[in-house]
Amino acid sequence: MTAQVARASNPNGTTAMWVRDRLDGLWRDEDFAAWYSRNGRPGLSPAQLATVSVLQFLLNLSDRQAAEAVRCRIDVKYALALELDDPGFHHSVLSDFRDRLAENGRADALFDLALARLKDAGLVKARGRQRTDSTCLLASVRELTRLELVLEAVRAALEETARTNPQLLDGLVDEDWALRYGRQVRLVSQPSRPATRLKQAGADAFRLLDHARGAGTTPGPAVEALRQITMQNFLVDAHGRPCPRAEKDGLPPARLRIESPYGLQARWVRRGHRRWTGYLAHVTETCDDRGVNVITDVATTVPTADSTALPGIRTRLERRHLLPAQHLVDGGYTSVALMDTAARTHRIEVIGPVAPDNSWQSKAGTGFTREDFAVDFDRRQVTCPGGKTSGNWTEPPSQAPYTLVAFDARHCSPCPHRSGCTRSTDPRKGRTVHFLPRRLHDLQAQNRADQQDPQWRRLYASRSGVEGTANVLANAHQMRRCRYRGTAKAHIQHVLTAISVNIARLSTQEPDDSTYRPRPPTAFQQYLDAQELPRPRWWRQGQ
């Protein structure tokens, strides 16, 4: 009856109905057998809960709205294979399911299963072309001052202790503690006595940690967060009293500094004109000439260099049997070593610009750059543009994998080109050249030569399309602001959003027997064509 009503009311189908019609569902209950205990009463179908979670992010619904859609929407009932009179479930079940997803990397396992189903249906394949880019994400936390951070960390630890071991607070919490931590910390922009209050908060934090340590119980997440925040912001003086760290005492850098007790992995980041507290999302999708672009990986990481995320992306793609033949990335991901590793280990051709030569000679456009020196790896010597040869070949461990070659000052001092070769005014010093091992050196030279090739530039230009996908994820599907606290739960949101975008894209794909044809040109467009005048093309027809 559900199928009959759904097809009658939606003869062309909907995105939710496509999941059932085209894929016969994304998951099976057997896929989740390892997630549940053998004992206890039977639970709701995990395959249905996973499908509802994906549709929730596809339609931008809250938990209550998603549970209501299961009860009221015909196409959702059809996608879940439910009877018309099925009452659905309570909205809190979705939160419990996400808690289960946050354990042991299950979010990535859910993505693996969804991509395997798409691969079995012939909708995505390996050894094609893929591209990767990153976008910033705002953590679900407030921006706190240093005083607010310590006060809120103490309050969060007190709340956790009151839930798990309330007798531990006996003899510790008094009226002053109740006034300081009895409600959520929200201070004015210029609070009174900030230095004194910070010292008091530090003393309270040390007392609470001492009580927790003396109880002999395993500290919870909030107490552990308090310990880390206390270590970053306080020192113990000669009298055993905590005092706030000053700049000279070594405050942690932004890439290590904790910004909130509710998101220990969130970091304050500044990249160009953008500033945010949160994470980075690395999105990878297919970009073959034909077919729909399918997101094959999404990674939620602490804001670091983009290149550090690339090995993990390839490991997950290898596990899913979706490694590409060509991987398009921007300069933030590329390095000669990573390109060489990808080619030798995974047979992947990385398409992206390596870092340019940043020497002052290259920037000024005068003098002799490293490329002007002829390197003979067999004889282990380097010849300068002036014809002088140096065999002072060293490989210092501190500068690995680079090799250093220093030219003799007897050759450099009388050289007429010395001013364009080195800025050193010491006549006892000559030019020093550093370069990579032969394999990496040749790869670097080849990449810089390829960047001047128009065909390489056209291929690399297709990388920019992933920026549009990142924009769709971040803005159209509201992934920019994380719904949930913590990296693990934020990653669940990003995985479910990526699956929903894949479904939305594939459900609009024209079937092979489609009668769709592009709209004919208008009268004025026909006139322009007759006069052989260029005109902008509709996006489906191409440029």
- Biggest sheet record: 6 strands, mixed
How many beta-strand elements?
Answer: 14
Helix content: 40-55%
Q: Separation of termini?
A: 47 Å
The structure class reads: alpha+beta
Please state roughly what percent of the residues sit in beta strands, choosing from under 5%, 5-15%, 15-25%, 25-35%, 35-45% or over 45%: 5-15%
Oligomer: single chain
Task: Write down the Rg.
Answer: 30 Å
Shape descriptor: flat
Please tell me the overall pLDDT: 90
Low-confidence stretches: 539-543
Note the total helix count: 20
Task: Characterize the structure shown.
This protein has 543 residues and is α+β, with helices and mostly antiparallel strands. The protein is 41% helix and 12% strand. It has 20 helices and 14 strands. It has helices spanning 2-9, 15-23, 46-58, 63-72, 74-80, 92-101, 106-120, 146-164, 175-181, 194-215, 221-233, 310-319, 336-346, 360-364, 409-412, 438-450, 454-461, 465-476, 487-507, 523-530; strands at 129-138, 234-236, 242-244, 267-271, 274-286, 295-301, 326-328, 349-351, 374-376, 381-383, 389-390, 393-394, 403-406, 432-435. Strands 1, 4, 5, 6, 7 and 8 form a six-stranded mixed beta sheet that branches. A three-stranded antiparallel beta sheet has the order 9-10-11, with no helix packed on it. The model is unreliable at 539-543 (pLDDT under 50).
